Amino acid sequence: xxxxxxxxxxxxxxxxxxxxxxxxxxxxxxxxxxxxxxxxxxxxxxxxxxxxxxxxxxxxxxxxxxxxxxxxxxxxxxxxxxxxxxxxxxxxxxxxxxxxxxxxxxxxxxxxxxxxxxxxxxxxxxxxxxxxxxxxxxxxxxxxxxxxxxxxxxxxxxxxxxxxxxxxxxxxxxxxxxxxxxxxxxxxxxxxxxxxxxxxxxxxxxxxxxxxxxxxxxxxxxxxxxxxxxxxxxxxxxxxxxxxxxxxxxxxxxxxxxxxxxxxxxxxxxxxxxxxxxxxxxxxxxxxxxxxxxxxxxxxx
Amino acid sequence: xxxxxxxxxxxxxxxxxxxxxxxxxxxxxxxxxxxxxxxxxxxxxxxxxxxxxxxxxxxxxxxxxxxxxxxxxxxxxxxxxxxxxxxxxxxxxxxxxxxxxxxxxxxxxxxxxxxxxxxxxxxxxxxxxxxxxxxxxxxxxxxxxxxxxxxxxxxxxxxxxxxxxxxxxxxxxxxxxxxxxxxxxxxxxxxxxxxxxxxxxxxxxxxxxxxxxxxxxxxxxxxxxxx
Lengths: 301, 227
Known about the structure:
The structure holds 2 protein chains of 2 kinds. Chain A is an all-alpha fold.
């Protein structure tokens, strides 16, 4: 019986793994690289989803909404970083509280504007195709492909671009980077805006396969943190491994047990994963040993 | 020309440096000496914008005392920290590219670093954190010198380095004839080889100044530093 729906079920495993990676990639920048315990990440996903919804309502063009979603989320992220979070990089508890408060504000604003009622975004590419005699929805395939493309783009951007080089230097040792001529404040702002924009993109991509309400972003917050932490903060390779393992496992478990029980098992796997991850050696922390200079507070700029 | 006037700096509520004043002309090497805890490294960190400070720091007549570190770097002042810190995960080439950003043609600067220290030229693709201590000192020095800075701040560049490496470092420092160099150095031989004037710090203030040779011949350096 299990073998009977293997092709379509296998694809759903891939889709959920891609969703885990997609929602966690933005957090890689804000939490994994910048070390901000970013509890507003879910609301940045929410902004992306509701931007798409609003543009769909206004213009009827879902794809336009999906193009604007990362822009708006990026601008909101940039405003939060410049307005609040840049003063709190060396005060993690304060930044946690600040992002918690910002998340509440955004959620309430969304609820005020759009109401708490469930709403839907239509898929820009409807229909499905046959694979092994089973229907595979086109939009879910698009999510997988966009996630893969996003990962390749992010890796190449961080590795090849001048900003990527400056970002890696700033994350590793902000004081040294600053004295070598890198505007570390601008780099941090850019990283936060980029992470926020990717979160917005994730919200836009996932809106057509979900029902939207103001709690939408919270669905992804915990799993995003799980993926980044288990993958090893600052490691994109680890993020992919953790996302595929956790998302794939959750999808597989949902075939044999309830979603709630599957999520509990995922959390248990995550706890074990955090414990054994260093033993597996599959990932490497980006922020390895830093010198005394690195531990010196870089003032907010 | 670097002019420092009535500079005070410290950590939090603790003032470490008080009323520091000196000038260094292009091509001149000024040596800052003092016992451990006298404030030598604090002086360089304050000049580089890492620590808050009061007083004036003028570079070619422009006051840069309140600028952030990246703008002080852009004005032409570079820092060779004592720890010869590197960025984990970045290659030797990456470090040189960061140092050179928008200053001059990258490949020219990288080639110059290789000529200055051939060991670096052979390791451009190697992660900098895998370099030996001496090679890290070479990299830190190369990063500073290839940008043709107006001022170089060097914090004990030969400390803990094998004599064979010191033999490469000293000529490289000496070749920076167009830069004003502020050198923190405890090794008297290095100071005599490189520096003109010396400033001896005690408890955050300059207590003696003069030429290194004169202070050494009169036994003042030995007396103050308890060599």
